Amino acid sequence: MTPALPLSVVVPVYNEEGNVAPLVREIIKALRGVIDFEIVYVDDCSKDGTVAALQALKTEAPELRIVRHVTNSGQSTATRNGVRAARGAWIATLDGDGQNDPADIPNLLQKRAASAHDVKLFAGWRVQRKDTGSKRWASKIANAIRSRMLRDSTPDTGCGIKLFEREAFLELPYFDHMHRYLPALMQRAGWTTVSVPVNHRARGTGVSKYNNLNRALVGISDLRGVSWLIKRSRITRIEEL
């Protein structure tokens, strides 16, 4: 399938009613006149008014498309389904809580334009995080352990803002929570990844859907699985004779 657009912005959301309108308007402000794009929101079966808030934006945001899960399936599944539904050759992802700044997307696009063809992922790097102290420390420890095990040379894999090639992403092995390991998975596939400093903000409204304990418990199992995938991978370049 030939991509119909150069860029799709994919935003997975769960119970983010109050953050929908401000973020959609920021995306439009950042990208209109810069590049042809669409916005694909994936609602992970929210229980609040998230879908209604999205539908109310259709008139002012013709770029907006809405995909809804019938059952709650998690952020990785929502991201993947958004990418599958997207019509862009490249994908920019944002967390739906407003902590990622859409104004960073043009910067990522400029970085891509200046990079080699084999760079398929530009990962946001939150150099000045606006989270609680406990969350920052938990993330610092988790990043250190991940980096030691996977050797992915990525200082911050938990940042929601990323820019990657749609085709390369869809070739990656899929599993729940895979969105936290995209640099390692892209490198496993033979591609290069680059970390780019980005802005980070306090959550707009609502509450986080994660806590330090459930992140840690899931992360231990995931790290072992991704490490196994990397060890078992074989990359072979081919030539046509």
TrEMBL record:
Keywords: Cell membrane, Glycosyltransferase, Lipopolysaccharide biosynthesis, Membrane, Transferase, Transmembrane, Transmembrane helix. GO terms for molecular function: undecaprenyl-phosphate 4-deoxy-4-formamido-L-arabinose transferase activity. One of its GO terms (cellular component) is plasma membrane. GO terms for biological process: lipopolysaccharide biosynthetic process. The keyword tRNA processing does not apply. Residues 8-169 form the Glycosyltransferase 2-like domain. Pfam families: Glycos_transf_2. It comes from the Bacteria. PANTHER family: UNDECAPRENYL-PHOSPHATE 4-DEOXY-4-FORMAMIDO-L-ARABINOSE TRANSFERASE (PTHR48090:SF3), UNDECAPRENYL-PHOSPHATE 4-DEOXY-4-FORMAMIDO-L-ARABINOSE TRANSFERASE-RELATED (PTHR48090). This is Glycosyltransferase family 2 protein.
